[in-house]
Amino acid sequence: xxxxxxxxxxxxxxxxxxxxxxxxxxxxxxxxxxxxxxxxxxxxxxxxxxxxxxxxxxxxxxxxxxxxxxxxxxxxxxxxxxxxxxxxxxxxxxxxxxxxxxxxxxxxxxxxxxxxxxxxxxxxxxxxxxxxxxxxxxxxxxxxxxxxxxxxxxxxxxxxxxxxxxxxxxxxxxxxxxxxxxxxxxxxxxxxxxxxxxxxxxxxxxxxxxxxxxxxxxxxxxxxxxxxxxxxxxxxxxxxxxxxxxxxxxxxxxxxxxxxxxxxxxxxxxxxxxxxxxxxxxxxxxxxxxxxxxxxxxxxxxxxxxxxxxxxxxxxxxxxxxxxxxxxxxxxxxxxxxxxxxxx
Length: 344
What we know:
The structure is a single chain. The chain is globular. By secondary structure, it is of the alpha/beta class. The longest helix is centred in the N-terminal third of the chain and has 18 residues, at 22-39. Helix 2 (49-58) links the parallel strand 2 and strand 3. The chain contains ten helices and 13 strands. The strands form three sheets. The chain has a seven-stranded mixed β-sheet with strand order 3-2-1-4-9-6-10, sandwiched between helices. Strands 8-7-11-12 form a four-stranded mixed β-sheet.
């Protein structure tokens, strides 16, 4: 194996998922940890105390090089609900104090090999995001900083964003700390505007501020996929097929397909796991990969695999609640509400 690179999962939330489909995400998390150890090096798990029992129940702690809990009021205060991925970003800041190279990896994504993973980049994220503030809750930098009533660190904002399900950092500790300083500034002044729709507040600091500030500071930020994803509600969204509506590729489709085969991200699918066809797509891919590359893994994680295989065989479309609004229905495109300041 080439030079080891530390990987990290951040599983920090008080909302412990005890739902019917929790084993799908946990199985993906297991695959993420095992493949990172196989191809990249050690991987750690930063976890909230509320998640400990679940992780140890399924034995997932055995997949990690280390497990650490974060009991930090500051994280809880900033991490929910508007800035729910803040713990991941805070962990990147902390890691940069001790490690020159590291990767904060979303637990719902796994990377099978180092192929096409540019370890020489100063920063590497997953893919580009298309920005359209009329169709999706990205907000222009100048406008949000105007509402926040603080000075913008970027002189020339561009309509560019980046997906940080992969966040690889290589010798950029000062930049990470500056980015997080400005993130904290936004969070501390977020009472001055109404919560943006569609996780827009989190998206702004994580996916929009980051690439614009990187360009302003001359930091080389690349993406694993030389592709752009068009966010927004879509029917039966999946990231499995690179030819589906929603992707714009800037490289040959053969290269794109090779990269898709190497990385699996279930973000666009896990919200529709009540549909049997979606569960089978997701679980079929993960189970096939694990069965091929980690034979007899069932013996090490029997409870998790038993639940996952039962779900895979389940052909039922489930209602996840008791209200009509909980029933599965087609999701339609629609404009997000306009950003406006609070009135109080």
